[in-house]
Amino acid sequence: MGSKRHARGVREPTGRFLEIAEREVGRIILDIHDGPVQNIFAALSQLYVVQKRMAQQPSPPGEELERVRRSIGLLENALNDIRTFMGAFRPPEFERRDLVSILEGLVIQHEELTGNTVSLVLDGELPAVPLPVKISLYRILQEALSNAVRHGSANQHSILLRSEGHSIMMEVADNGRGFDVAAVMQRPLAGHFGLEGMHERVILLGGSLSIESSPGLGTRVCVEIPVAARPAATPLPS
Fold first, then answer.
1. 15, 132 in Cβ contact below 8 A?
2. pTM reported for the whole predicted model
């Protein structure tokens, strides 16, 4: 499928680093919720009161009332944007949930937000997956789905999960317009932090990443990450 990009890492896994980074993201999300979100909500509440009182006046000041309405609209949009951002980055209980249920939750969220169709297929049983691997596969899938919509205008996605030897394999394909992988990766990294982020997560865990794509033929992201050989059945939720 057109051009291809491979990356393989030989560094020792740095799971502790990924756990700390994920917890830090969670802390930031809580700070946003307890700070800016509450302040915006309080400002909106005050503006609702002002708008109601102005509208009830015998001769409502039209220009000022319209300015208040526009301000309310801007704050409501800002609040919705922040909540969407928070929903995308809130850790989905990585420690407690198994890999498949975590990824299925992301699939459901993506379908609800975009209206796209996403198929998630589990090929056989999966071994027990360490926390850093759960985090990385979740974030990589999140980025792959987002890129497919934002840059490729995709409306269909397919995900395949399987175990091979002591590794977890994940393939994410879409029907988007695709791109020239080699040309994109040769450009300065500005604007391509998503691809670089996927690459870095895989490298940190000693895995490999390949991206296959070409204009008009969609994109396929293939990830392989080694895990400890501890067989544990992980059924695909019905």
1. yes
2. 0.65
